[in-house]
Write a structure and sequence with these properties.
The strands form five sheets. Strands 11-12-10-15-16-17-18 form a seven-stranded parallel beta sheet, with helices on both faces. Helix 5 packs parallel to helix 8. The chain has ten helices and 20 strands. It is an alpha/beta fold. The chain folds into two domains: 25-134, 2-Layer Sandwich (Alpha-Beta Plaits), CATH 3.30.70.260; 138-419, 3-Layer(aba) Sandwich (Rossmann fold). It is globular.
Length: 446
């Protein structure tokens, strides 16, 4: 089915991390163009099936060429070149989305040409299966600098202290698509097993990115290390895939686009991670939908931030079927339950920031990270949990965990519900709340 979308700038809610690599071939001179938000409205993505993708032939074959990690067939390259000539548009990059067998290309429409007319013509081209704009995704969070606000009140609300005697996320890997992460933060040392930067052409830095560092800390910050905070799933591991970059220098808000996100999702599928966290939001995107549906088909639990604004054209991928949609729990009347989404604490949550610091952050990105961590706890106990089982457990725990002061997700109720159907560990692990003697908590400057 052909798909084309005309929405330009979108809101997002969190981000991910970097490293070199990738199965695509890109002229470095074109990278600033592909990643430049100012001209995104004149960039188009097209895609079509290529059965030769992933079919490695002999080195002597003249029909199949390998360029580093990029696997391209001569046929698909001829098609993309012919499209460029037929529509008088410039081909910038082409690459295979290996997990779905689709060859992709990005084109720039001349400034004096009509983008809608070009898309309309391409949508009628029998060679093209997907055509869409280059969408922009943007993070949206708020910082609070109150060091005395109930430290990690979210963990107390969710009763995490009653869960870690049974599960801590051990042997579970979460793939996070966000900005970069401070790889040297004392809470995140040895917690990130793989990182890759798909936005290196516009944002080569990795460890100074705020949004990804904050989201990572919520999920996997180490426990019992004598400093700082505790993550929801402190023994889980993280794959940090940077597809977003700071909107401005030193900003927690970030932006990504269809290209970088598609590369990151494809890689996330290849890693075999059990969980995919996307603390971001934007318009419906055919390329990402294709890839995310493949991830879901392979049993990956996809968790995304829900803006809660009720705008369907700004709430993808949370709006996608079979994705766990998470909203930030704000103050509201007790007992009110959101429909078709999960509510988790998202206001003034203490988490990690670059340079070994901490601060209070708010937003649906944070709430989505908490649920991703909780799913890791559940999957340590039962690694083959399905989307239907996970959603059912989360929804029941949210309902049963409601009380006069908190009506969101309850981790203890969720784990207890699962342990009623399987055998769970009974021996408690050593775990202490509060600040260790002689340890100072540092906060980032206001």
């Amino acid at each position: 089915m052909k798909s084309y979308l005309l929405l330009p700038l979108i809101l997002l809610l969190t981000i991910s991390a970097p490293s070199e690599g990738g199965d695509f071939n890109l002229d470095a001179a074109q990278l600033p163009t592909v990643l430049n938000p100012a001209i995104a409205d004149h960039l188009l993505l097209i895609g079509f099936p290529d059965q030769s993708i992933n079919r490695v032939q002999a080195a002597s074959s003249t029909a199949y060429r390998r360029r580093g990690g990029y696997k391209s067939s001569g046929w698909s390259q001829r098609v993309t070149q012919q499209i460029a000539e037929d529509y008088h548009i410039q081909k910038l990059i082409e690459w295979p989305m290996s997990e779905v067998g689709v060859h992709c290309a990005i084109y720039q429409v001349p400034a004096d040409a009509s983008v809608p007319e070009t898309m309309q013509r391409l949508s009628q081209d029998t060679r093209v299966s997907i055509v869409q704009n280059m969408h922009l995704f943007k993070t949206k969070t708020h910082q609070y600098n109150d060091p005395y606000f109930k430290l990690q009140a979210n963990l107390h609300q969710m009763q995490i202290d009653r869960v870690h005697d049974k599960t801590t996320g051990r042997n579970i890997t979460i793939a996070m698509i966000d900005t970069g992460v401070d790889l040297t933060h004392p809470e995140l040392l040895d917690q990130i097993t793989q990182n890759e930067n798909f936005a290196a052409g516009i944002s080569p830095d990795f460890s100074n990115d705020k949004h990804g560092t904050a989201v990572a800390g919520i999920m996997v910050a180490r426990k019992d290390n004598g400093t700082g905070i505790i993550g929801i799933a402190p023994d889980a591991k993280l794959i940090a895939l940077k597809a977003c970059w700071p909107h401005q220098i030193d900003s927690i808000e970030a932006v990504c686009n269809s290209f970088t996100l598609a590369l990151a999702v494809n890689t996330a599928i290849q890693t075999g991670a059990k969980i995919l966290n996307m603390s971001l939001a934007g318009p419906q995107d055919a390329f990402l939908e294709l890839l995310l549906n493949k991830a879901i088909e392979k049993g990956v639990i996809v968790i995304a931030a829900d803006t809660g604004l009720g705008k369907k054209d700004e709430n993808f991928p949370a709006s996608l079927e079979n994705v766990i949609s998470v909203q930030s729990l704000r103050q509201r009347d007790p007992g009110i339950k959101l429909i078709q989404t999960i509510a988790a604490p998202g206001e003034k949550i203490l988490t990690t920031l670059p340079h070994g610091t901490y601060d209070f952050i708010s937003g649906s990105s944070i709430a989505a990270a908490e649920v991703s961590g909780l799913v890791a706890l559940l999957m340590e106990l039962k690694s083959d949990l399905t989307f239907v089982e996970v959603r059912s457990i989360l929804q029941k725990s949210e309902l049963l965990g409601a009380n006069e002061s908190f009506s969101g997700i309850n981790a203890n109720t969720a784990v207890t519900a699962l342990c009623e159907t399987i055998t769970c560990p009974q021996e408690a692990l050593s775990f202490a709340w509060g600040k260790s003697p002689g340890v100072e908590i540092r906060f980032s400057a206001p």
